[in-house]
Automatic annotation (TrEMBL):
GO terms for molecular function: 5-aminolevulinate synthase activity; pyridoxal phosphate binding. Keywords: Acyltransferase, Transferase. Belongs to the class-II pyridoxal-phosphate-dependent aminotransferase family. One of its GO terms (biological process) is erythrocyte development. GO terms for cellular component: mitochondrion. This is Aminotransferase class I/classII large domain-containing protein. Pfam families: Aminotran_1_2. Residues 3-127 form the Aminotransferase class I/classII large domain. Its cofactor is pyridoxal 5'-phosphate. It comes from Scylla olivacea.
Length: 182
């Protein structure tokens, strides 16, 4: 017992050969043509799902990765949406709460994969909207004032870089452009 928790012991264990072999196989696949095809498919899936969520009026926040955050703003509601989606519809969506995000910035974390199909994503959005409406969460136009560059052109997401600095130009709560600044 003491040996397992001793500081010097914990970081001296090596990875099992099967884990190393699996990681090596994954790197081999990802660095070849199959990996390039998977990345292209993944970007297509993310773009489609993000556009669909925005089109339906959900408060999608800007994120430079494949993860699509949807602003909820309440830890109880976020957890309730997450629970309802898995229990009643079979969709796993992670609720992200404090301390991972500041209070008031609670969100759902959607992580599509290259294996998701359009019918699967359409069904997911339909089910999410059902739960969203049952909980009387606001839907609607998520565009911001004229000066907000992201909201006016959400399909230009690909052109935005995570390292791009920004100055908040919109005072709309939960503006995707503002979320990018934090």
């Amino acid at each position: 017992m003491i040996r397992s928790y001793a500081a010097g012991f914990i970081f001296t264990t090596s990875l099992p050969p099967t884990v190393v072999s699996g990681a090596l196989a994954a790197v081999t696949i990802l660095s070849g043509p199959e990996g390039r095809a998977l990345r292209a498919k993944h970007q297509e899936v993310v773009s489609y799902l993000r556009s669909l969520l925005i089109e339906k009026g959900l408060p999608v926040e800007h994120c430079p990765s494949h993860i699509i955050p949807i602003h909820v703003g309440d830890p109880l509601l976020g957890t309730k949406i997450s629970d309802e989606l898995i229990r009643n519809y079979g969709h796993y969506v992670q609720a992200i709460n404090y301390p991972t995000v500041p209070r008031g910035q609670e969100k759902l974390r959607i992580a599509p994969t290259p294996q998701h199909t359009r019918p699967m994503m359409d069904k997911f959005v339909e089910d999410l909207l059902m739960v969203w409406k049952e909980l009387e969460m606001p839907l609607g136009n998520t565009t911001c004032p004229e000066q907000c560059t992201f909201c006016k052109k959400p399909l230009l997401f690909k052109a935005l870089e995570a390292r791009e600095s920004c100055k908040p130009s919109c005072d709309k709560p939960y503006c995707p452009q503002l979320a990018k600044c934090f």
